[in-house]
Design goal:
Layout lengths: L3 E5 L11 H14 L3 E7 L2 H4 L11 E5 L4 H12 L2 E5 L5 H11 L3 E6 L2 H7 L17 E4 L5 H9 L4 E3 L18 E6 L7 H14 L5 E4 L13 E4 L7 H6 L1 E6 L3 H6 L5 H8 L4 E4 L15 E3 L2 H10 L2 H18 L2 H21 L16
Parallel strand pairs: 1-2, 1-4, 2-3, 4-5, 5-6, 6-7, 8-9, 8-11, 9-10, 11-12, 12-13
Helix pairs in contact: 1-13, 3-4, 7-11
Length: 374
């Protein structure tokens, strides 16, 4: 089964302030290795244009477009003829693009929600990239969040088929490094106001307590009024090619979860898988369903307060630290690589195709392209 797949996503060319980039790269790279033809369509915007760290992938295609009118004008035939068109969360003008794609595409259509908890929390208020009315029009809803959420999306929003598609790590890129750690604890992530309290509690507060240890935070868009302790190094942006070394230089890395994702649960960050693949033990805040991804105390360490962090950093024997790291890496290689996700997507595609063939057509027939309306 060699498919023609088109992905319309936020950005795959720039990881600046954008956690979607490495998720897309890992998944698409695995799909390409498995023989699928993948094209990624991305709106060309200044903040990503100025920080690109991927230009021309060797096994798949990236196309940049300037405005929503380019979708039918430049890519209409590509989208109509594709076996599968995937539209991601946070795509500019995503609702209008989804309207056009679900009307004109002959193949299956899917919505890939890499921000499911945020989407569900704000869907009724109104989002630029998805409306509740659009959900039943997609053949497949791919959810960043697992547990009971995919079934809820089917039952509450009328999705014909909702399935979990977690992020992943590409083990060819994210692998252990032969390097001596220089930071006791680090964190990699773009600033978010609802995640900052976790970072304050689980990294900045322990840094103040353990003043002789060194800490690090890497990520863009942190406001100028954040007060960083003297022993916390700051890296404004770190491109993915530097991630493995960055993780290798930490004794432990922190997973800090956004409020909506922590409340809904079952929403592992891509950084969890990438850090574990690099052999760096992860300390995470607690949220429902984390035990379905990594086994607590054996593959991941959970903290409830700054004291837990301080005790881990100060008291954990090196042998135990290494064992936890190795256990987590084995779990990633067994369950959470990009190849696992590509295989899952193939399974979901076959399931959605069978579902479409069984059901009575409910969508309107394709209309002529109307560029002005999109």
């Amino acid at each position: 089964m060699n498919l023609s797949i088109v992905v319309i996503g936020l950005s795959v060319t720039s990881s600046w302030g954008n956690g979607h980039a490495t998720t897309y790269r890992a998944l698409i790279g695995a799909l390409a290795r498995r023989g699928h033809r993948v094209t990624f369509l991305e709106r060309d915007v200044p903040w990503y244009r100025d920080h690109r760290d991927l230009t021309k992938p060797s096994a798949w295609t990236v196309e940049l477009y300037q405005s929503i009118k380019d979708i039918p004008r430049r890519f209409g035939k590509l989208l109509q003829d594709a076996d599968l068109v995937i539209i991601g969360s946070y795509v500019p003008d995503g609702i209008a693009i989804s309207e056009w794609v679900t009307t004109h595409a002959h193949g299956l259509t899917a919505f890939y929600d890499i921000d499911t908890p945020v989407t569900l929390a704000k869907l009724e208020e109104g989002l630029d990239y998805l409306s509740a009315a659009m959900i039943p029009r997609f053949d497949l809803y791919l959810s960043f969040t697992g547990g009971p959420v995919p079934s809820m999306i089917e039952q509450s929003y009328g999705s014909p088929l909702a399935r979990v598609l977690y992020c992943s790590a590409d083990p060819a890129i994210y692998a252990p490094q032969r390097i001596e750690p220089r930071w006791a604890l680090g964190y990699l992530g773009t600033y978010s106001d609802d995640r900052q309290p976790v970072l304050e509690q689980f990294l900045l507060s322990p840094a103040r307590t353990l003043s002789s240890e060194q800490f690090v935070v890497a990520g863009a868009q942190y406001p100028a009024d954040v007060i960083w302790p003297a022993n916390v190094a700051r890296i404004e942006h770190l491109s993915p090619k530097h991630h493995p070394i960055f993780y290798g230089e930490q004794r432990f890395t922190l997973n800090a979860t956004r409020a909506d994702m922590r409340a809904l649960g079952f929403s592992p960050s891509v950084r969890l898988f990438e850090a574990a693949a690099c052999g760096t033990p992860v300390i995470s805040d607690r949220w429902p369903g984390i035990e379905t991804v990594f086994e607590p105390s054996r593959e991941i360490l959970l903290a409830s307060n700054p004291r837990d962090i301080v005790e881990i950093l100060r008291d954990m024997p090196e042998e135990q630290r290494r064992t936890i790291a190795e256990n987590a890496r084995r779990r990633v290689l067994a369950d959470h690589t990009s190849d696992h996700r590509a295989r899952q997507l193939e399974t979901y595609y076959a399931e959605a195709l069978a579902h479409r063939r069984r059901k009575t057509p409910q969508l309107p027939a394709s209309r002529p392209m109307q560029v002005a309306q999109i």
